[in-house]
Structure formats: C-alpha cells, structure tokens
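Hi,

I'm pasting everything inline rather than attaching a file, because the server keeps stripping attachments. The sequence lines come first, and each chain or strand is labelled.
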Amino acid sequence: MVKDGDYVAIFNSIHRVMEAERLLKDKHLKILLIPAPRALAADCGLALRYAEDVRSDVEAALAEAGLLPRDLYRKSGEAFEKIGEKV
Amino acid sequence: MNSLDVRGMACPLPVVSVKRALEAAPGELRVLLDDGAPRENVKRFAQGRGYQVQEEPVEGGFACTISGSPKREAAAAERAGANVMLFGTDRMGDGPEELGRLLMKNFIMTLVELQEVPDRMLFVNSGVLLTVAGSEVLEALEALGNRGVEVLSCGLCLDFFKKKEQLAAGGVTNMLTIAESLLQARSVVRL
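And the predicted assembly:
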C-alpha cells in the first residue's frame, strides 16, 4: 500500500487521524487512510499516506488545523526514513 | 499444451484467469499476455506457487509458458478447497457506522500485507459497495487480485444498489456460484 517515495503520517489517536482524513478529503487532497505499516509503531494502527506532489498542501492544512502528526516517514526502498521530529 | 490469451485484459484478470486455468487443467500452460503489469503479475504469481516460467516476446505482447507443478503446500491447498471470505456488509462489527467502515477498510488493506491471502472474496448485500467506483479499497483489491485472489460481487446486489455500471474491482457472480463456493470451501470467514 506504500510505494517508494510516499509519505506516511502517524498520529497519536484514532480521533486525530480520522479528523485529519476528513479535513484533507474536504480539501480534495489525494490521501489515503491505511493500516500503519508493521515497521512503524502506531497506537491506533492507522496512518495517512500521501505522495510528494501533495505533501506541502497536506502538511500546511494539517498545521493550520492543529493536527500535526506524531511522526512522519518517507518510504525509501524497503525502509522508512523518519522526517524530523515533527513536520 | 493448454493455451490462454489474456491480452487486453485489465489487472487483475490475467492472474485470475491463469489461476483458474491451472486449477482446471494442471500441466503446461501457454499464456499470451501484454507486457508490463500483466506480465510481471502472472510471472510473480506462477513462480510464487512453485511453477517454472519461460517467456518469449511475440507479436503484440509476450508468451509465457508455465510448467511444472505447484509447491506441495499450494497443491494440497488446491485439493482441499478454497479459503473463502464472505463480505455481507461494508462495515466490520456492530457499533458506529463510521468506525465500522473504517475497520472494514483497514481489514481489507491489511490482507494485502499478509503472506497468506484468501482464494476468493465474495461480496454480497452492502458488501458490494466495497467493489464499486469510489470505494477506498480498490487499490487493495487490485493488489489482492494480482496475487490470485478472486474478487466476486453479487450481480443482484449491484443491481439493487444501482451500481452495476460502477463495478471497479473483480467480476460479477450469482447466487449459484456463491452457494457452491461456500459449500465447497475449505474454510469460510464471514464478515
């Protein structure tokens, strides 16, 4: 479900990830709520996936709404690179 | 040698057709297919099951000869019958609708990550809403189809929801096939 170069955002709670999904869908941004990859710990087991082309829009919308993810990763080959401590 | 032409078919139909042909008539199978995803998916599927695969370019695509016999586990599983999942709803469990839909979506996407996948996924009643345009699990269903999972939706149900033209994953089936699949299955997981 996650291709090379995709971003995966992990949130603190199911409510935050659902709220983030709703917000981004309302803005017609191409994101997908996915099961959190096994390699990434997520309390709620869910994550948001998005591609590079919408990254700045997604992250700006999340920041504006106070819905920053707990962690952000980028898929690189078989691994996930952590992007900073927070977006 | 049996032969099959899956050129022009959209994914995951090439894999599903090859799987059916191998199950119906074991032995050598020559498949004509398009280059790109269909060729890669069929090759991965056959090799994953333990078959040998030889490819050669032909006019309008590739010819892929599948020979040998499946791995012992795959052969035993084929003899024992299919693992079937029956989706009678687009939600998982009782409770808030939003949570139920989210859980179902999460469940289907999680199947993609597993080593063992069902042989067949049957969608009936509001379960067919998962296989039509706009569903968020289409990408997952395509990935499962490419691993040989047969995705079938109840035609009557699609008709009821006026979604017949919007089917976007797998094929259409009827109650006869659904009933046979359930009765002949090795295991049925009902959701």
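Chain B is about 40% helix and 25% strand.

If the labels don't parse on your end, tell me and I'll reformat.
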